[in-house]
Specification:
3 strands, 68% helix, alpha+beta
């Protein structure tokens, strides 16, 4: 019986191996649709590849739409930049004109102050766009005319609006 006892553990391991093998085979199959684990993995890989292709296609569509929007907005951006440039140019010209007008006003006032008959403190000098406007009193018609001539002689003056009132000071 020694021989029969030696076979018993070997037979026992054979049964265990068969059960494990059967369980392994059973685990690799899905009784619902008959797919094995390998087939399930292949199906999952295929689904992942399809999803990646769809995501790539969607990204390309969105990138194309974004590119189209940028291209469509370029003329508006160029126009806006041109408008800003023109506004800056106009502002610069206006500032330069204002500075020039202030310089003309100062120069006319200074020149009028040199005349002993004219009271530069009482004559209001205003300049806009190179046009000088004189307001206030003048002691005589000759002094009024001289004030106009003094203002016309200043560099940058395009014309003089002499509104001085002739009256004794």
């Amino acid at each position: 019986m020694a021989g029969a006892g030696a076979r018993k553990p070997a037979l026992h391991w054979t049964y265990i191996s068969l059960v494990v093998l059967a369980l392994g085979v059973a685990g690799c199959s899905d009784r619902g649709n008959g797919q094995t684990a390998g087939q399930k993995v292949d199906a999952a890989i295929a689904k992942t590849q399809d999803a990646a292709v769809r995501a790539k296609d969607k990204a390309e569509v969105l990138a194309g739409e974004a590119r189209d929007k940028v291209v469509a907005s370029e003329p508006a951006m160029r126009e806006g930049a041109a408008n800003v440039k023109e506004a800056a140019r106009e502002t610069g010209a206006a500032v330069a004109g204002t500075v020039e007008d202030v310089a003309i006003t100062a120069s006319v006032s200074s020149s009028l102050a040199k005349d002993p008959e004219l009271s530069a403190a009482r004559i209001d000098v205003d300049t806009k766009g190179g046009v000088v406007k004189l307001q206030g009193p003048a002691p005589s018609a000759a002094a009024k005319a001289r004030a106009g001539d003094i203002a016309k002689a200043v560099k940058g003056v395009s014309s003089v609006d002499n509104q001085l009132d002739v009256r004794a000071m």
